[in-house]
């Protein structure tokens, strides 16, 4: 299980550090770190090499490839690593000119200052343009409260910043230009990243073949929740209960943006259901969908499924609208050997929109217990409370809900000695 | 990760500003006639 969950990130780390291995092969540590100035210059080079490799790999991660879904044990993990690798890669690229400038201080202050100005050398100018664009675009991502479609534009423009970074690599006189292997590796990685980035940003609109569905029914539930039931036009998606899809609607009232949502229907149903709560700009438009609107579905993705657990004795914990993957799992549950305690955590009974249906399913399946948890009456659910009611030994725990809810519960469960590989969570956030 | 980016950006700004300011002063001194 450890390698199933960590193989992808291990490969990313190896591919990011490979240029440094070759760089050290060209000249060993004694030749790289013999003085303060040489050490600063070497650290600058390492930051540049690893930062650029990480940025290339990050563009590949953003390609939304099915193979990455398997390699990283879920596309949501891919996006989580994408955020982390992006931040680390960006920081390394920021330190690349800083270390080099400090090494130039040994020559003169003027030489160091000139290195940071985009007027003395074309290759350096490319690098400075690339870095400034990254600072602006990632600054907007991290500190601006952008709407989703604006955020997507800033991410697409990162390709331009990256292109200038590639020009910098190709034109600068350095170990990269002097070593064919290092140059080939970095350029190939960059081109692969650029290609996949361009595919995701532009070409996928024309080349991808999403499954076409039509909105057949809309069930408007309490608490701002809408259940969309869609019928396939042609091929239907084969998914495992608990997985998610990217959906883009062709509708008058909903923007044509692609967003991820867990499927809430059972896999064997012909129709597919998405259960969406109005929480943001996009989801607030969902109730305006009309019968017959076209939905383009890409996927399925993710490994959050009771079928991927190690034990058939399981605890499912849903926080609010985090109930959706569990709806799919429980609606499709045919195996009577499962023993499941489903904690449905909401503020009060009025928010427990799916409780009647869950209770009906539980009545027909003796292995399923539904445990509603109302935080307004009992406070937030704790690992201790779950342990007392269900026991935690030899069980898989599945958690889906708001980020803080999941983080707190996971920490509490680990403190109660639940093995990390037995804790499964559906984490999905872009920032 | 936001914390890492914030610290990196602050260090970047501080060092770049310091070097460019020192470079400007050094340039002015080298241009001065006295």
Quick description:
The complex is a heterodimer of chains A (431) and B (34). Chain A has 431 residues and is an alpha/beta fold.
Helix content of chain A: 40-55%
> Which structural class do you get from the secondary structure elements of chain B?
mainly alpha
Cross-sheet strand order for the largest sheet of chain A: 4-3-6-1-2-5
Main beta sheet of chain B, described? none
Helix content of chain B: over 70%
Q: Could you give a short account of the major beta sheet of chain A?
A: 6 strands, antiparallel
Name the poorly predicted regions of chain B. none
**Number of DSSP-assigned strands of chain A:** 11
Distance from N terminus to C terminus of chain A (CA atoms, Å) equals 27 Å
User: How many beta-strand segments of chain B?
Assistant: 0
Task: Give the C-alpha Rg of chain B.
Answer: 15 Å
What integer value in Å does the Rg of chain A equal?
A: 25 Å
**Mean pLDDT figure of chain B:** 89
Shape of chain A: elongated
Give the helix tally of chain A. Answer: 15
Q: Any overview of this molecule?
A:
The complex is a heterodimer of chains A (431) and B (34). Chain A is an alpha/beta fold. Helices cover 51% and strands 17% of the residues of chain A. Chain A has 15 helices and eleven strands. Chain A has a six-stranded antiparallel beta sheet with strand order 4-3-6-1-2-5, with no helix packed on it. In chain A, strand 7, helix 11 and strand 8 (339-346) form a beta-alpha-beta unit. The longest helix of chain A is centred in the N-terminal third of the chain and has 30 residues, at 75-104. The radius of gyration of chain A is 25 Å and the shape is elongated. The model of chain A has no long low-confidence stretch (mean pLDDT 89). The longest helix of chain B is centred in the middle third of the chain and has 30 residues, at 2-31. Chain B has 34 residues and is mainly alpha-helical. The model of chain B has no long low-confidence stretch (mean pLDDT 89). Chain B is 88% helix and 0% strand. Chain B is built from one helix and no strands. In chain B, 9% of the residues are buried. At the A-B interface, helix 5, helix 6 and helix 7 of A face helix 1 of B.
């Amino acid at each position: 299980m450890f390698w199933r969950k960590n193989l992808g990130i291990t490969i990313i780390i190896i591919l990011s550090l490979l240029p440094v291995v070759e760089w050290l092969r060209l000249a060993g540590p004694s030749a790289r770190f013999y003085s303060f100035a040489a050490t600063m210059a070497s650290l600058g080079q390492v930051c540049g090499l690893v930062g650029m490799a990480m940025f290339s790999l990050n563009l590949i991660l953003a390609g939304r490839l099915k193979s990455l879904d398997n390699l990283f044990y879920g596309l949501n993990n891919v996006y989580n690593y994408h955020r982390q690798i992006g931040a680390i890669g960006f920081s390394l690229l920021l330190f690349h000119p800083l270390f080099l400038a400090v090494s130039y201080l040994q020559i003169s202050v003027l030489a160091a200052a000139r290195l940071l100005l985009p007027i003395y050398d074309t290759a350096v100018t490319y690098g400075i343009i690339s870095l400034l664009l990254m600072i602006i675009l990632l600054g907007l991502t991290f500190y601006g409260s952008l709407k989703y479609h604006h955020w997507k534009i800033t991410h697409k423009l990162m390709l331009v910043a990256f292109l200038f970074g590639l020009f910098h690599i190709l034109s600068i006189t350095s170990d990269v230009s002097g070593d064919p292997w290092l140059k080939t590796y970095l350029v190939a990685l960059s081109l692969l990243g650029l290609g996949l980035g361009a595919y995701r940003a532009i070409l996928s609109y024309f080349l991808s073949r999403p499954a076409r569905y039509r909105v057949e029914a809309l069930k408007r539930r309490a608490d701002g929740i809408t259940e969309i039931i869609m019928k396939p036009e042609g091929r239907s998606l084969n998914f495992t209960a608990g997985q998610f899809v990217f959906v883009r609607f062709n509708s008058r009232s909903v923007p044509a943006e692609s967003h991820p949502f867990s499927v809430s229907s059972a896999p064997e149903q012909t129709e597919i259901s998405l259960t969406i709560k109005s929480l943001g700009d996009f989801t607030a438009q969902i109730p305006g969908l009309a019968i017959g609107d076209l939905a383009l579905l890409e996927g399925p993705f993710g490994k959050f499924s009771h079928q991927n657990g190690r034990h058939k004795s399981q605890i499912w914990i849903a926080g609010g609208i985090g109930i959706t993957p569990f709806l799919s799992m429980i609606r499709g549950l045919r195996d009577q050997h499962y023993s499941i305690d489903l904690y449905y955590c909401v503020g009060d009974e009025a928010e427990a929109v799916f409780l009647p249906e869950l209770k009906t399913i539980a009545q027909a399946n003796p292995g399923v217990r539904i445990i509603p948890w109302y935080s307004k009456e009992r406070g937030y659910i704790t690992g201790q409370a779950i342990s007392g009611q269900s026991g935690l030994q030899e069980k898989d725990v599945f958690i889906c809900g708001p980020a803080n809810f999941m983080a707190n519960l996971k920490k509490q469960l680990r403190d109660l000695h639940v093995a990390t590989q037995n804790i499964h969570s559906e984490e999905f956030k872009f920032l | 990760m936001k914390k890492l980016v914030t610290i990196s950006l602050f260090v970047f700004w501080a060092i770049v500003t310091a070097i460019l300011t020192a470079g400007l002063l050094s340039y002015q001194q080298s241009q001065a006639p006295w």
